[in-house]
């Protein structure tokens, strides 16, 4: 899991430049568009804008990197670096999502408007948590195919 704020994005050396570009693109789209799905400039990447109340459920993806950007409201996101080997062995998930029933070693990070959290495939996360009563939130969720960052998809570099 990576965590940061869009105002500081250019200062975060640990965030890939393609991901930075897609986060900036998604935030610009989300400023003017209603809830829905929008294609992004990077192949097979897309944006989902959602509005609603906080309510939590665990989820995990196999194919996509998931960047959760909070646009308005307040949210806590649970996550765990402990991977359930039974889930890791699954190769295909319908709609690239599974909802595990429980997670070990769950930790939480608080998101305020402009904050983002990035989750890699096989990393369980629990978005839309809150302390107290459910509250309204608006989010931009960027989905980036993990294959975009596999060794075979990166340009070759030769030593001189």
TrEMBL record:
InterPro entries: NanQ/TabA/YiaL, NanQ/TabA/YiaL_sf. GO terms for biological process: single-species biofilm formation. Pfam families: DUF386. Gene3D superfamilies: YhcH/YjgK/YiaL. Transmembrane segments: none annotated. GO terms for cellular component: cytosol. This is DUF386 family protein.
């Amino acid at each position: 899991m990576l965590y940061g704020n869009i105002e500081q994005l250019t200062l975060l050396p640990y965030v890939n430049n393609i991901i930075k570009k897609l986060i900036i693109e998604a935030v610009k789209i989300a400023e003017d568009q209603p809830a829905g799905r929008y294609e992004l400039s990077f192949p097979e990447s897309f944006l989902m804008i959602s509005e609603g109340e906080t309510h939590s459920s665990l989820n995990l993806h196999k194919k996509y990197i998931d960047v959760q950007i909070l646009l308005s409201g307040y949210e806590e996101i649970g996550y765990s670096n402990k991977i359930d080997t039974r889930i890791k062995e699954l190769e295909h998930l319908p709609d690239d999502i599974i909802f595990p029933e429980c997670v070990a070693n769950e930790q939480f990070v608080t998101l305020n408007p402009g904050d983002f959290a990035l989750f890699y495939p096989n990393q369980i996360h629990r978005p839309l948590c809150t302390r107290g009563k459910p509250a309204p939130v608006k989010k931009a969720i960027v989905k980036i195919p993990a294959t975009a960052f596999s060794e075979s998809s990166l340009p070759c570099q030769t030593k001189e």
